[in-house]
Amino acid sequence: MTETDPAHVIETRGLIKIYRMGPTEVRALDGVDLDVRRGEYLSIMGPSGSGKSTLMNMLGCLDSPTEGSYRLDGVEVSGLTDAELAAVRNRKIGFVFQTFNLLPRYTAQVNVELPLLYSGASRAERRRRAHEALQTVGLGDRTDHRPNELSGGQRQRVALARALVNDPAILLADEPTGNLDTRVGQEILRLFDELHAQGRTVVVVTHDPEVAARAERVVRVVDGRIVEDGPGARFARTASPAPVDGPGAG
Amino acid sequence: MLGRKLRREIGRQKGQIGAVLVVMALGISLFVGSYAGYLDLDASYARSQRELRLADVHVDVVRATAADVARVAGLPGVEAAEGRVVVSLPLVVPGADRADGGAGSVKVEARFIGLPGEGQPDHDRVFVQRGDLPGADDEVLLEFHFAEGHRISPGDTLEVPLPGRTAALKVAGIAASAEYLWVARDAQDFMPGPQEFGVVWMRRDGIRTLAEALAPLPPPLGLGLALAGTAGGSAHATAVAAEAGASNQVLYMLAEGADPAAVKAAAGEALGEGNALASTSRDQLVGVRLLQMDVDGLRDMAGFFPVMFLAVGAFIVAALLSRLVDAQRPLIGTMLALGVPRRRVLGHYLSFSLGVGAAGSVLGALGGIALGALLTREYARELRIPFVSVEVRPGLVASGIGIGLLVALLAGLGPARRAAAIPPAEAVRPSAPPVGRGLTLFRHVGAGLPVPVRMGLRNLVRHPGRAAATAAGVAASLMLVLTTSALVDSMDRGIDLQFQEAMRYDLRADLLLPQPAEDLGGRVAGIPGAAVMETVLSLPVRLSAGGRHQDSLLHGVPRGASLLRSVDFDGVERMPRAGGVVIGRPVATKLGLAVGDPVDVSLLPSGTPRRLRVDAVSDTTLGGFTVMGLEDARGAFGLGGLSNTVLVGLASPGDREAVRAALQELPGVLRLHDVASVRVELGRMMGLAYAMVGAMLAFSVVLAAAILFNTATLAILERQRELATMRAIGRPMGSIAAMITFENGLLGLLGLVAGLPLSVWAIREALALYSSDLFSLPFVLTARTFGIAALGVVLVLLVAEWPGLRQVARMNLAEVVRSREG
After folding, report:
1. Which residue is closest to B446 within chain A, CA to CA?
2. Any bridge partners for residue A174, and if so which?
3. How far is it, in rounded angstroms, from Cα B452 to Cα B782?
4. How far is CA B539 from the centre of its chain?
């Protein structure tokens, strides 16, 4: 790929990921072409073993493709070194994990400050921006609480504030409501809607059709390929509730 | 199910299990090996002494007749007694290869010990290793260190210079003796090289023939008995040796159950008033004592090092098991909920620590058996121990394995009990971060610190026990390295003080009898290459105070002397005023003397005591010397104008051979002492010391590496998810490495800070251990040594954390960040 469309924050071409398990080769991704526009709200769905988690790992720069190209915010990331990938993750991607992945011994404020710490922001700036991010997710009054002093929904909001604090190019959420009850899950999804409305690019990986349906666009992955790509609303009408894969699988 | 998970966990922690196995195995190996070596050598020495009938008591006497000896033999409590002659004579080894690289004939002081006309003596027998016992009066048997030092074989010929001629002596054989396994001339000269001193056995009649030829030398100025048995002259001993049937040493064996003190008193009486000079029990013979000190060192090692290794091993086992219990918490809870009894959970985790302990102990015991055998074999070879006892001691091996198992059991008990006590409902939830007083305090104190610093500090505070144990491990490693290195520094300094500051001559000639100093001066001044010459007195004396006695060598040194000075450990020269003496610390301690106290000094063997004053107590490397002004000493002991030792400083090292040769030819020279040869001997000794330091260093590196590797990898394993999250949100690997290094650096720093006073204490203890009335060393700890040791520990720390960091770098981020907590 030589030409890039500045409107696209994600562009993948011919993305292939092969895992070798002894003598067996598993083709987890088999030539994925995917464009995501700036400000788009995209859900990636698929049954267990479909390759959706592998795709999420590639998009999140947590793993490297065996073949193919991946441009994130105009930067070709498929050939970057480990240190360069760390910098890309820090500046361009905001992660929200199913299991929150907060550092249990630190306050909400410090947890949100961490990405800024790694990007070299000054102490005053870190404090200010982390506080703002926590206010954005409605936790301005919980800055000094540790994760074990917060509810599941509040923990996920802290994780969301941490994802937003560096003003990333994309917000990448992996089963963000998987560990939350329905009511709290809906609150988190409303936050995603708000962020999208503010112009953020949001990519959610989920097995839940209800969650997927809140996105403006849904792609379905089966056997490492994108087999369906369409508006979320339409997908919600056609989605079948089964098969359902477990959290973290796929 | 627990078992399968346990096996999987073990598989994941192969490195740490390997580390703990190495540490435990080394600990048990050192215990079994050193102790087996100690027991074997102790048994070998005892057996050699028994087989060769080393006498229970050696009594130096002025003169004993066959009747005197018979009286001692007949005393109650005496099993057998025997008289013999021991006399020092000059011996020339023609065409000798010297250890200092020189060649040509060498004149040494040979201690001739009398043998009966046929066969072995009843006491102090010899073990002939090559050749035979002397078959004629002009044949000799050489002690093997001496023979080996000069590459002498049976059939070679040596010479004794006699007035107007030389007596040729044929070497009949090479032998070892229980008394001279460690060859010491006396308490002041306990490590003479073969270029200076050797032990020679000869038929009593052969010695009489030599002594008769020497005896006509007139005892000057009526010295008579005064210089008997001295290093510098043995006129009296020679006179006794020239007399048929007379002895100057009586040996006896105690009967079973005899009271040694009572027998000693009775023997003194039987030998006549003033005849018995010194009575030395077998374990107090200089060579036997030194050998015992040496072998006792092995016993101490069997206690010290294994404790350190096993403590570190226990710490690693406990830390590993704690981590396993944490990792398996949900599973333990499930098993308990399903009705598995708690004692089974307890047994399960204990079996892990016992398994590791058993494997380490068995490996260690096997290594220990080999190590013990190696130690004994090497010692036996080096010292030529005649009768070697090597045993595999099942009791010792079982003790080693038992200790290993006990340590493992104790180490595993805490975590195993914790696992068994987990309430099932709580176990299935992830464990909450620990909250303790330390952490609460830290929250307040650490609040103002930068986040990376807080992160590093927090990881220490949240496992204070582990942090303390790691710091203790670093401190112990530093102590090991520093103590051994400081010992070398102390030896270097002690040797420097002795040879650069105190004994500054190149060559020393000891005379058989004192001679007028002016004549000596004139003769030596004529030797080309002898740049500086001083004459001194070297007199064997007995110091007495408060009813206690101590023998010593008194140096009468001219004021302003440059070649022989009395220099303290602090480098200051201490010379007595008129009527005063400077004594060594061991002598002062033994006699309870302080500066200003009176002390009676008499020439050995039976001189009149002179009341003198202690002007200074000096700490010196060789502790047995007493110093007096030369003129003062001459006046006090009636030796006006005489000297019996000539000291020479060379114009250049190239003159050594010529000056040596000329000094050897001076009339009345008993032996020549060449500082270069002594330095070669010392160099050999220091080589051994360096080898020991190398071994200690290797041990401390293994210890430090094991403990730091364990801490670093555990800290990483426990925080895998946390570290993966950090990496996922963009923390560079270098920054994570820096954080872990910072944590380990803090632990290292804590260890170094704690280790320094510990090391100072250990160095002082080690110096005290090595100090005796024969030898002591100054305390030296240089900044350089500390710097190198600290740097070494830090380097080990950096290397030890490397596997853990590699693990973080290779972490499957995608997998770890998506895993559940717990």
Report:
1. A106
2. A205
3. 35
4. 29
Q: How far is A179 from chain B (nearest CA, A)?
A: 10
Length of chain B: 822
Looking at the DSSP bridge assignments, the partners of residue B648 are B507, B533
Of the ranges B208-212, B435-439, B495-499, which is most confident? B208-212
Domain ranges of chain B: 86-215, 463-502+676-822, 503-675
Phi-psi region of B101 (alpha: psi -120 to 50; beta: other; left: phi over 0): left
Contact A105, A148 (CB under 8 A): no
How crowded is residue B430: how many other Cβ atoms within 10 Å of its Cβ? 14
Name which of B796, B581, B776, B616 is nearest B710 in CA terms: B796
How far lies B325's CA from each of B7, B328, B467, in Å? 13, 5, 19
CA distance B490 to B499: 14
Q: What share of chain A is helix, strand, coil (3-state, %, to 5)?
A: 35, 25, 40
Q: How far is CA B669 from CA B85, B234, B335, B661, in A?
A: 21, 12, 90, 12
Token pair of B57 as six digits: 């008591």
Q: Are A184 and A176 in contact (CB under 8 A)?
A: no
Token pair, residue A65, equals 């493709």
* The pLDDT of residue B204: 93
* Structural domain range at position A123: 39-64+80-238
Interface test with B, best of A101, A114, A127 (most B CBs within 10 A): A101
For residue B172, which of B134, B128, B130, B216 has the smallest C-alpha distance? B134
Give a yes or no: residue A116 inside a domain.
yes
Would residue A145 count as lying in a domain?
A: yes
Residues of A in contact with B732 (CB under 8 A): 83, 86-87, 118
End-to-end CA distance of chain B: 18
Per-chain mean pLDDT for chain A:
86
For residues B44 and B387, give the distance between their C-alpha atoms in angstroms, rounded to a whole number. 6
Contact check, Cβ <8 Å, A83/B733: yes
Lowest-confidence segment of A33-37, A52-56, B321-325, B544-548 by average pLDDT: B321-325
C-alpha closest to that of B91 among B193, B160, B194, B143: B160
What is the tally of structural domains in chain A? 1
**In this predicted model, what pLDDT tens digit does every residue of B431-441 receive, in sequence order?**
545 545 555 66
Q: Give the CA angle between residues B498, B503, B506 to the nearest 5°.
A: 125
pLDDT tens track for B254-271: 999 999 999 999 999 999
Q: Are B130 and B145 in contact (CB under 8 A)?
A: no
Q: Which long-range contacts (CB under 8 A, 24 or more apart) does B4-8 make?
A: B5/B328, B5/B331, B6/B324, B6/B328, B6/B348, B6/B352
- Does some domain include residue A222? yes
The residue written with tokens 């267990």 in the block is A48
- Please answer yes or no on whether A103 and B432 come within 8 Å at the CB atom: no
Which one-letter amino acid corresponds to residue B232?
G
The residue written with tokens 């400000």 in the block is: A39
- Residue A246 counted as domain residue: no
Task: Render pLDDT for A65-88 as a digit per residue (tens, 0 to 9).
Answer: 999 999 999 899 888 887 888 888
> Smallest CA–CA separation between B732 and chain A, in Å?
5
Is A101 close to B817, i.e. CB distance below 8 A? yes
Q: Are B722 and B328 in contact (CB under 8 A)?
A: no
Using an 8 Å CB-CB cutoff, list chain B residues near A148. Answer: 432-433
Query: Which tokens belong to B518?
Result: 């002016």
Residue A130 C-alpha from the chain's centroid: 20
Q: Indicate the residue of B458, B727, B817 with minimum beta-carbon distance to A86.
A: B727
CB contacts, 8 Å: B733 with chain A: 82-83, 86
Q: What is the CATH number of the domain that holds A221?
A: 3.40.50.300
Tokens 């620590």 belong to B353
Short-list B121, B138, B228, CA closest to B179 = B121
